[in-house]
TrEMBL record, chains A, B:
Keywords: Copper, Disulfide bond, Metal-binding, Oxidoreductase, Signal, TPQ. InterPro entries: Cu_Am_ox_TPQ-bd, Cu_amine_oxidase, Cu_amine_oxidase_C, Cu_amine_oxidase_C_sf, Cu_amine_oxidase_N-reg, Cu_amine_oxidase_N2, Cu_amine_oxidase_N3. Residues 243-656 form the Copper amine oxidase catalytic domain. It comes from the Eukaryota. It comes from Perilla frutescens var. hirtella (Perilla citriodora). GO terms for biological process: amine metabolic process. SUPFAM superfamilies: Amine oxidase catalytic domain (SSF49998), Amine oxidase N-terminal region (SSF54416). This is Amine oxidase. Residues 122-219 form the Copper amine oxidase N3-terminal domain. The modification 2',4',5'-topaquinone is found at residue 408. Its EC number is 1.4.3.-.
Length: 671, 671
């Protein structure tokens, strides 16, 4: 929801190492979807700064080849060199204007440079947030406010909040700075200095508005620190040691950014805006003896986190985290053995700092094989002699990234199953956004003023939602696909001969245009299936993949409310659009203070045809969060997700022939 | 959905071992909720057979002490001997009548013996199904039917199906026998001999009706066998070895049937009808330095599996698996290293055969610590110097049972989390119930006659549902609880001062009577919370546990349809009743051919008060299943579940003080 960085940017490693650059200087061996290398980022910085000396960088990512080029390259041979341009897409600010710059890295030239005149601003970079959050500490009225409260300036930490948009015709590129108190805890989010709002103009980098509306006691530090070193007994019994062992190593291979495991083959990229991008996911069909395409591309296109407090200091907190703060930019180095199991392999990610210098986030991804003790399939057959019981344990492959957007931590897992499923799980943890209150007991609170739960003395956990929109460019066995709504419909039996009065059947409805494919998932009686209408199984079923939603929470805000206009993708759980390279983000390209004129709700008003086309499914996973005391001072993980599951994609169970894993006797292990 | 056993009952071990009986002769050390021991079952058999020499046994289970006795025992000291009677409840058939017999095992006498005159019949025992399924093989008209089809009698396997109830005033205790073909496969379920129905009177144990309505080609054996030994290349790449190691052993202890792990303490029992029973689940609160009660008792009270084919041979297949076939009776010995991970500990279960002799199912439960690579909670704090990143991996405890009710395998997991959650997962695998058809391509099928998907040539996977009703006697910090519906309600902002037009708030509604607590979960905007209205946290929140449903599928059948009257619990996802020891099964005590007069839908018509009472929550987890080709010839697991999660039960995050597990370096391991 909001982000902030201290000036101690120790995790940003400047890349001047000749070792790295020499390794990466040749682009020959690059996969066309590989993220920009540090060398390329350096190249690009030089080129852009030549034409704009005072530029600041806000987004740099791969401007990938057109889909038809990629597909044609794939169809030739999956391992050949890609012959095509290597381009970057840059959003930068110069002279208080947003520039969209396309750079050809092969030719070392700027292909285009245009100014964006529409509503909204680009992603905030980390450095401007850091600078802005330090401005109040030098600002006399702020210092006076702190003194008036009897607080120590040295214990203040401030954080940057985007402002949303509430109908203003003209906007400037401003953010709100809110401040917190340390003084005995590192969990400053639990100690908001309520009532003070500092507005900073990011282009001018100065305070342009300052309000100190009210003094509210700062909640106490006791019990807020979550570090192990700060806990006092009694402790929980420590669980005995437990680990996963793979003596022969993992079963996956990573070749650059291409990952192969069991029957899966896919490409994993890192993007500073959306975080992980899964591309070209194909599954090997042993019957057909070939890889078959499933997912051309999948990533989190936007995240919408509206808080449900309408007071002056809170109403605007309706964040679009991906487009405002960057899920990749906010990704954290994963902690070995805790964030990921011991058998995990880690990958780094690169992004661009304010001045265009490349920076690395180490261990931004982990990849591991997961065995949770689950069963892939089984059957016991007591009806036959010989104790028939066939069981296959379920081992899957997980790609993980953790993005910490300010207080909240999102653990994003893309999980590949041998059975053909792709399961995506978002697990939420981190720190609540809380509001300070003078009250210490629920009885003192007026419901219409609290907007949340008293999670501790003087501490209200404010209600909010998380809506994660997933861009899913499914290419089920080819590009031309259709969305089928399979309605499970009750039939009243008219046949006098049957003792039954009712049964359900399946009525298939093919979504012909975009308006047919706006779906709210709530009754569980409609199956959403993406089919390839041009291919059938041997017995004549449409080849498809089913989207199995894991949550039915949808936005409860009015559709004409400003924040909901911007986060309009949460009006429905499912939308479908015809593939359009320019439609990448369900909330639009520029979301900070946007007017919501570039959202999926607007695009789909054209009601384009989507039947038997190259289509994109946009699925929104939603979680309502009415905080509870267990969320204080740090939240136990809450998980939600969805599954893409083959549905008549294979002729029969694709894991029928998976062999039982070899039993291994472990001897002589010592700890 | 249906069950059948061959005469090879090799897994039933008759218990005449003096070793066992001497160990178990004393009941002093028994927990009052321990299941009946083999010694007690033998005792009981002798007593019952003395008064009814020709009795057949259909259910034997613990007749547990009244709840107030258990609670008073618990409150005294958790480890003291229970002084109270040890009783068994028996349902037996004698002279074609159902007897309910209560036996006092301490006093070695029958306390009561009454005949049940209501509708419906008791659970089928395994032996009578076995005998009944062999009758057709000796029956001339059946042999003629088989010969007419050109099939080999030696390759026939038959299975017992309950008939449901379709309005008949008078019923006899009959079942339908349907037969299948082996001849080249062990997966006979994929080879139905369609068109033949044999009706067997179980009391008279003879065929009372026989129909051979039509000849349909038996689907071919090719591709149906699921055994590893029968597969041909190409095979999938085998995943490399992977295992879980716990060098210091598990962190749980099992003392008889009492399990203690981390902060949890609960009792696990086995019942031949419902399978696993979790009782007296309490969690240790380190702040209060005491165990606090959560779940007095939890188990699957009934399972409803209606098929959606109204043809003569199929319409009645609307099974109530728990009450008809027994989830415990159908439980399978778990396969080490595949059904459960290598670190699992196994427990046996005992049930009663037709003549009252105790039998054992080895390894009926497994208990293991699960580490799936998940995170319990985490936060990185880039705003502060020092690379703050605290992460706690999530280790949980799983209790598993697999019940194979005929063709279907249900993997039932009760998972305990250190954070206080109890998560229940039902994973469905096994074999589809299919219908033979002359057709080999979808184009030949008429939708109104197929009732399913052509999953292979001549093979229709018939549509059906699975509704699992969970009995959840939650005692949140004491017996007197209330059900709160927390409605997330949109508020239109009338305040001209706020730029917001809407937000959502929480409106709590306490269910006062049973009719208030009939809930269909579909919009995701109502939180279902069981609270203890007599206890508050320090800041004044009601202490509670939230029920988080994992599925929104509800029954699509008309409420006045016969099978739906019997499976009426599936009308709603949630029901609440005041605790009543006699209300154990949502579908009633006698469900085979019952008229649905003892269901939760009938009990709750009294509309009893449920506010601040000892209440029971009945939750139905539902899955619609429209089969797909991937389900052929054996189904990849499909999981669904729900979570009971503390909500203001603790003053703060109960796993805040959980220490990071010790990092263990493994050396010298050899495979």
């Amino acid at each position: 929801m909001h982000s902030m960085r201290s000036p101690n940017l120790s995790f940003i490693i400047l890349l001047f190492l000749s070792f790295h650059t020499s390794l990466l200087v040749s682009t020959h061996k690059l996969h066309p979807l590989d993220p920009l290398t540090p060398f390329e980022l350096n190249q690009l910085q030089t080129l852009v700064k030549k034409s704009h000396p005072n530029v600041t960088f806000h987004y740099v990512g791969l401007d990938e080849p057109d889909k038809h080029e990629i597909l044609s390259w794939m169809s030739r041979t999956r391992m050949s060199d890609f012959v095509g341009p290597r381009r970057a897409f840059v959003i930068a600010r110069a002279d208080s204007k947003s520039h969209e710059i396309v750079v050809d890295l092969s030719k070392k030239l700027i292909l285009s440079d245009k100014i964006y005149y529409g509503s909204g601003y680009p992603m905030l970079n980390i450095e401007e947030q850091t600078i802005a959050t330090e401005l109040p500490l030098q600002y006399a009225p702020f210092k006076a406010s702190i003194a008036k409260r009897g607080l120590k300036l040295s214990e203040i930490v401030c954080s940057a909040f985007t402002n949303g948009w509430y109908g203003a015709k003209h906007t400037k590129r401003v953010i709100t700075i809110l401040c917190y108190y340390l003084d005995g805890t590192i969990n400053f989010y639990m100690r908001p200095i309520e009532g003070i709002m500092v507005t900073v103009d990011l282009d001018e980098m100065r305070i342009v508005d300052y309000r100190d509306r009210q003094i509210v006691p700062v909640p106490k530090a006791d019990g807020t620190d979550y570090r192990e070193s700060e806990q006092n007994p009694p402790f929980d019994t420590r669980i005995k040691s437990m680990t996963i062992l793979q003596p022969d190593g993992p079963s996956f291979t990573i070749d650059g950014h291409r990952v192969r495991w069991a029957n899966w083959d896919f490409h994993l990229s890192f993007d500073m805006r959306v975080g992980p991008i899964i591309s070209l996911a194909s599954i090997y069909d042993h019957e057909l003896e070939k890889y078959r395409r499933v997912l051309y591309k999948g990533y989190i296109s936007e995240m919408f986190v509206p808080y449900q407090d309408i007071s002056e200091e809170w109403y605007y907190r309706t964040f679009l985290d991906a487009g405002e703060f960057g899920l990749g930019l906010s990704a954290m180095p994963l902690q070995p053995s805790t964030d990921c199991p011991k058998n995990a392999v880690f990958l780094d990610g690169y992004y661009t700092t304010r001045d265009g210098t490349p920076a690395k986030t180490s261990n931004v991804f982990c990849i591991f094989e997961r065995y949770a003790g689950d069963v892939m399939w089984r059957h016991s057959e007591p009806a036959l002699p010989g104790d028939v019981a066939e069981v296959r344990p379920d081992v899957t492959l997980v790609v993980r990234l953790v993005t910490t957007v300010g207080n909240y931590d999102y653990i994003i897992d893309w999980e590949f199953k041998q059975s053909g499923s792709i399961k995506v799980t978002a697990s939420l943890s981190g720190i609540l956004a809380v509001k300070a209150t003078p009250y210490t007991h629920k009885d003192q609170l007026k419901e219409e003023e609290s907007f949340g739960t008293l999670v501790a003395e003087n501490t209200i956990g404010t209600r909010h939602d998380h809506f994660l929109n997933f861009y899913l460019d499914l290419d089920i066995d080819g590009e031309a696909n259709s969305l089928t709504k399979s309605h499970l419909k009750t039939v009243r039996v008219s046949d006098d001969g049957s003792p039954r009065k009712s049964y359900w059947t399946v009525v298939e409805e093919v979504a012909k245009t975009e308006s047919d494919a706006k779906i709210r998932v709530n009754s569980g009686s409609t199956e959403i299936i993406v089919v390839n209408p041009n291919k059938k199984t041997k017995v004549g079923n449409s080849i498809g993949y089913r989207l199995i939603p894991g949550s039915v929470a949808g936005s409860l805000l009015w559709e004409d409310d400003y924040e909901q206009i911007r986060g309009a993708f949460s009006n429905y759980h499912v939308w479908v659009t015809p593939y359009n390279k320019s439609e990448k983000y369900a909330g639009g390209l520029y979301v900070d203070q946007s007017h919501g004129d570039d959202t999926i709700a607007k695009w789909t008003l054209r009601d384009r045809e989507i039947e038997n086309k190259d289509i994109v499914v946009w699925y929104t996973l939603g979680v309502h969060h009415a905080p509870i005391q267990e969320d204080f001072p740090i939240m136990p993980t809450l998980s939600s997700g969805f599954e893409l599951r083959p549905a008549n994609f294979f002729e029969y169970n694709p894991v029928l022939k998976v062999k039982t894993p070899k039993l291994v006797k472990w001897v002589n292990c010592s700890a």
